[in-house]
Specification:
With 616 residues, the protein is an alpha+beta fold. It has two domains: 194 residues, Beta-galactosidase, Chain A, domain 5 (Distorted Sandwich); 380 residues, Glycosyltransferase (Alpha/alpha barrel). It has a 15-stranded antiparallel β-sheet that branches. The chain has a three-stranded antiparallel β-sheet with strand order 24-25-26. Strands 16-17 form a two-stranded antiparallel ribbon.
């Protein structure tokens, strides 16, 4: 057991993905998070949340102090970490294996849930330590581990794990460990396979099979990147990398997209605002598709809408659209606490499931219909269930836009008339009117237009606060909310509208921290029914950059963008938040919202600069 293993900075982690699940690998060579076989499955390695608890990890590292540098191989999510010790140099290359890329947009289709790790001594001599400690069910299970030909087997809980190891490992007491002295030119490869108890345990892969998996995985990611990533605007590399991260957060078998691969990483150290993000929020997933339109030109729009049509299917015309689902389309995401885990930096509780699944959040209708409008050329003409599903979203938005809800921030206090929710209902109706003929719903368009106009009037009359001089968080409120930055972004009003400009200025003046990063809202208002503070929200800061660009304030837009993009770690990964005093990353990691914000802000600035040049 490594004391304090759950206290590492989030910046120390890199992401691996096979588009079924994800792993987090620390700079010290330890895999501290891995859920199998899906993003939202119980963790096999949960040291990330374990503190001093032996919650599971797999470490490969030099047995000496080392200088560390790392990077993803070009165009991939294959991670290479370089260690330089006094006696030699070592390269550790990690990946979750994916299938062949003959059809690049199906990246991950043939994945078999194999974590592959390659260690190569590139100079001198280095002693390498391997420590394998699986702990299924978020650390509740200590499996029986024994040696076999070519590796070790771990059995306990609902699955079997088989580790292929080229070096002898001493097995016992739920772990396997060993050391090996490596000299320049030597390469050793490891592979961890997962299998349910219902099938025979797989045999350990041999060295050539693991080498082949590395080649296939690297080629698959590069093939996907070459086929899809054509953005050539400012911050090109950041945008392309964010596109790969977002692709890595998508669940290939179903078309679902997770908000983040982790649970319970806190919004502030020691706080209790800790949520499970390993599910598909309609809002986050729709925005991910929009960002991929810029960063990766995805072909998966039909898969995403197919998932949504199936997951949300109901014969009840009066039913609210559920705001989130499991990656397999599950509806019941009942939240519970894991008391045996202390949480990252003692930030308890650790939660599994998310109670927000039962909330009413009216903005989801607008998010889905906005995405449908953007990808309308990819929507199949003959898909009657999809057309009716999208039309029913507009019908529901027309019926419920005037109701209170819990809003985009999933307030756990009393429902309110949140401005952003009304705004996104306006978006739902506006996009539905534009799509009416394609949806075969021209006869419903007049009712949608009428409701759209009513929603606009309500926002203009009740969402604007003359005393505050800005659009506020909810009707009749004096509190500001960064979600009001979406007004120009969704096209409700132009970026240079006087009310929009006043709102942008008010948010920047009153909701930013000392580092110039934007908070969602003032937690002192107690609107969310929760105690404590939270870090600055990176997506909101990207919204600010985007709003400045739409206002024609390009120098300010670039300054804000550079400020928030600088929060990324050395691998270009962003969490949900940043500490307002230190800038340290906080919240679930990596966060789709933040990478969505980066992509869309970069694109907005690129378009605004092109427009300025054409009118210059």
């Amino acid at each position: 057991m490594v004391p304090g293993v759950g206290d590492k900075p989030l910046e120390s982690y890199g992401l691996l993905s096979d588009r079924h699940t994800a792993a987090l690998v620390a700079r010290d060579g330890s895999v501290d998070w891995l859920c199998l076989p899906r993003f939202d499955s119980p963790a096999v390695f949960a040291a990330l949340l374990g503190g001093d608890t032996d919650a599971g990890r797999w470490s490969i590292h030099p047995n000496a102090p080392a200088e560390v540098s790392r990077a993803y191989l070009d165009g991939t999510l294959v991670l290479r970490t370089r260690y330089v010790t006094a006696s030699g140099e070592l390269e550790l290359t990690d990946a979750l294996a994916v299938g062949a890329a003959a059809d690049p947009h199906r990246l991950g289709a043939d994945s078999a849930h194999v974590l592959i790790r390659q260690v190569a001594c590139t100079a001198g001599n280095v002693e390498v330590a391997v420590d394998f400690r699986p702990r299924p069910e978020f650390g509740l299970v200590t499996p029986v581990v024994w040696g076999c030909e070519g590796g070790v087997v771990a059995r306990g809980g609902p699955a079997v794990l088989v580790l292929a190891s080229p070096i002898p490992l001493a097995a016992g007491e739920g772990a396997a460990a060993g050391t090996v002295a490596m000299r320049a030119g030597q390469v050793w490869r490891f592979a961890l396979q997962w299998a349910p108890l219902s099938v025979p345990a797989p045999r350990p892969w041999d060295q050539s099979e693991i080498a082949g998996a590395f080649e296939t995985t690297t080629a698959a990611w590069r093939g996907w990147s070459a086929a899809h990533q054509s953005y050539q605007g400012p911050w090109r590399e950041l945008v392309h990398h964010s596109g790969r991260v977002l692709q890595g957060l998508s669940h290939q078998p179903t078309g679902a997209i997770v908000a983040a691969p982790t649970t319970s990483l806190p919004e502030t150290v020691g706080g209790s605002r800790n949520w499970d993000y390993r599910y598909t929020w309609i809002r986050d997933a729709a925005l991910t598709m929009d960002a991929l339109w810029v960063a990766a030109c995805p072909d998966e729009a039909h898969e995403f809408f197919g998932f949504m049509t199936a997951a949300a299917a109901t014969p009840r015309p009066d039913a609210h659209l559920q705001i989130m689902y499991g990656v397999g389309g599950e509806h019941d995401l009942t939240e519970h606490i894991l008391p045996h885990l202390p949480g990252w930096r003692a930030s308890a509780p650790v939660r599994v499931g998310n109670a927000a699944w039962a909330q009413a959040q009216l903005d989801v209708y607008g998010q889905l219909l906005a995405t449908a409008a953007r990808f309308q050329d990819q929507l199949p003409d003959g898909d009657a269930p999809l057309r009716e599903f999208l039309a029913s979203l507009a019908d529901t938005a027309a019926r419920v836009w005037h109701q209170p809800d819990h809003g985009i921030w999933e307030i756990r206090g009393q429902p309110r008339h949140f401005l952003h929710s009304k705004l996104m209902c306006w978006v739902a109706l506006d996009r539905a009117v534009a799509l009416a003929d394609r949806l075969g719903a021209a006869d419903r368009a007049p009712a949608w237009k009428s409701a759209r106009d009513q929603t606009r009037h309500a926002i203009q009359e009740q969402g604007w606060n003359e005393t505050i001089g800005a659009y506020t968080q909810s009707f009749g409120s004096t509190a500001l909310d960064a979600a009001a930055l979406m007004i120009p972004i969704v096209g409700f009003a132009p970026g240079d509208d006087p009310r929009v400009l006043a709102t942008i200025d008010a948010i920047e003046q009153r909701l930013t921290d000392q580092r110039g990063l934007v908070h969602r809202y003032d937690t002192d208002t107690s609107v969310d029914g929760l105690a404590g503070e939270e870090g600055a929200f990176l997506l909101c800061t990207f919204w600010l950059a985007r709003a400045r660009a739409l206002a024609g304030q390009l120098a300010q837009a670039r300054q804000v963008f550079e400020r928030v993009a600088a929060c990324a770690n050395d691998l270009g990964l962003l969490s949900e938040r940043a500490d307002p005093y230190t800038g340290e990353l906080l919240g679930n990691f990596p966060q789709a919202f933040s990478h969505i914000g980066l992509v869309n802000a970069a694109y907005a600035i690129a378009l605004a600069e092109q427009g300025a040049e054409s009118h210059g």
